[in-house]
């Protein structure tokens, strides 16, 4: 097992290098450069001054020299300077990572808390009224666009009922570390988390329901029933154990999907995380921030895939690389 994890980790190195080359080249192909968003249209900066700044920042060097500098600094955690925000990209991201991690963690937690019981009920009591109600909910979750559902949630719970706040991650008037500050952060999380998780349950529910229905027809289940094993133990000790393992294996993919999906949720609720910063950086043409965020997102996908492979290898040792 240790050998497989080591091989899978080493395999990430060429993937990350290839990813960095693609991201850097795509960034270079885009119109403008790192200084464009900060100084374009500024009457106080002449074209000659802008050209001197480009020369000083090394933006006129050949692409491979720029890539070498960028990659060397990125490995050390330095993604350059944001000329729009006038601060280092690393410092800019540091204040947003916590919000995105909190949002993604609670969205994933609530998604599984809802999806697992519903998937188990639908699979065990097939064609019952509960199964039909869950399948109907699943179709609704699958067909509803995220931004429409999130806007409806915001309108109903914030504007109509006034129960929950929207926008920002905390009341800026509160002092950090106080109980009121903690409660405010929790309240600001509820709407984004519910909006994301209530629609993200459909794949887990559908997969779990179908797998339980398939497992019920397997020979080992028939044998257990023939031996007189109580029905509750047939489900808990045989069917659910086999049906839940593949879902655990997809945990890595779920994490990376949530980080990518946070772009929409954070933009809709003006939640100050990495996704909201990504949209702002695109609109202001802040190249260094966009490049850093795409690199971080791509790295998260590669790491998530590795985690899924490792979990799958634990679940089914036959897939381990020999």
From TrEMBL:
Membrane-topology annotation of the record: Multi-pass membrane protein
Residues spanning the membrane: 9-27, 101-125, 137-164, 189-208, 244-269, 289-315
Domain ABC transmembrane type-1: 97-308
InterPro entries: BPD_transp_1_N, MetI-like, MetI-like_sf
Record PROSITE patterns: ABC_TM1 (PS50928)
Highest taxon in the source lineage: Bacteria
Pfam family, one: BPD_transp_1_N
Record's subcellular location: Cell membrane
Coiled coil: none
Chief subcellular location: membrane
Alphabetical UniProt keywords: Cell membrane, Membrane, Transmembrane, Transmembrane helix, Transport
Family label: Belongs to the binding-protein-dependent transport system permease family.
Protein name: ABC transporter permease
């Amino acid at each position: 097992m240790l050998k497989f994890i080591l091989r899978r980790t080493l395999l990430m190195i060429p993937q990350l290098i290839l990813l960095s080359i693609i991201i850097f080249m795509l960034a270079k192909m885009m119109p403008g450069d790192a200084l464009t968003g900060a100084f374009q249209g500024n009457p106080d900066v002449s074209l000659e001054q802008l050209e001197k700044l480009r020369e000083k920042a090394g933006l006129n060097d050949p692409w491979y020299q720029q890539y070498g500098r960028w990659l060397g600094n990125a490995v050390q955690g330095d993604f350059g300077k944001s000329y729009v925000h006038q601060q280092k990209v690393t410092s800019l991201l540091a204040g947003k990572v916590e919000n995105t991690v909190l949002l993604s963690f609670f969205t994933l937690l609530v998604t599984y808390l809802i999806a697992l019981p519903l998937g188990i009920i639908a699979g065990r009591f097939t064609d019952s009224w509960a199964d039909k109600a869950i399948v109907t909910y699943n179709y609704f979750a699958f067909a509803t666009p995220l931004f429409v559902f999130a806007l409806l949630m915001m309108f109903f719970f914030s504007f109509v009922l006034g129960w929950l706040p929207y926008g920002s991650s905390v009341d800026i008037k509160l002092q950090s570390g106080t109980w009121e500050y903690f409660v405010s952060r929790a309240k600001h999380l509820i709407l984004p988390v519910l909006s994301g998780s209530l629609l993200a349950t459909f794949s887990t529910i559908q997969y779990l329901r179908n797998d339980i229905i398939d497992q019920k027809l397997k020979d080992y289940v028939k044998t257990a029933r023939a031996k007189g094993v109580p029905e509750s133990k047939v489900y808990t000790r045989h069917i659910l154990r086999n049906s839940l393992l593949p879902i655990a294996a997809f945990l890595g993919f779920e994490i990376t999907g949530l980080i990518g999906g946070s772009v929409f949720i954070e933009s809709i609720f003006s939640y100050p995380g990495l996704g909201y910063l990504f949209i702002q950086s695109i609109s202001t043409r802040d190249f260094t921030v966009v490049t850093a965020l795409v690199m971080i997102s791509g790295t998260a996908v590669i790491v998530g895939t590795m985690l899924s492979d490792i979990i799958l290898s634990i679940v089914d040792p036959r897939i381990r690389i020999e």
